[in-house]
Write a structure and sequence with these properties.
It is a single chain. By secondary structure, this protein is mainly beta. It is 8% helix and 34% strand. The protein is built from two helices and 14 strands.
Length: 186
Amino acid sequence: MILSDRDIIKEIKARGVTLKPFKREYVQPASIDLHLDRHFLVFDTTKNFVIDPKLPAQNLMKAVDIKDNEAFILHPQEFALGLVYEETGVSDKIVGRLEGKSSLGRLGLVIHTTAGYLDPGNSLKMTLELFNAGRLPIKLYYKMPIGQMAFEYLSSPCDRPYGSKGLNSKYFGDKKPKASKMHLNF
């Protein structure tokens, strides 16, 4: 069951959902609006010619940070990792689902390709998997609305929240975009 605005506010007060910073105007009928941070990772094609998921990916990407009034330009068919400005968290009884803003989707911007899930027990600045599916470059700005998070109750609180020992929780508590850690699965 997706939480309504009333239940989102109730869970924020009870600390079942956390959002830092929180502003009441972020709350929509069944979600919370999220904004874009200034930190990005882009593939460094000058030093790499292939991706091998068995190898660490930290040398595949380079960091790009934008200033307050500067734009990050995402070119057609280009992929970048970005970051949500707000630190978003859920308790062991709630999951979060990140969705794009329809106004940005209509411009060709995809904000996540697979990783739109906030696991119970995690609190982090969600990584965005930004992709320009359009034919024109898109300018992205610091703190612009970028997505929305909907929340759902689990059937019961989970026994092992994300980050628990033995779960191999690779991105627990992240505050900056991180390159893939897929190599840890081999």
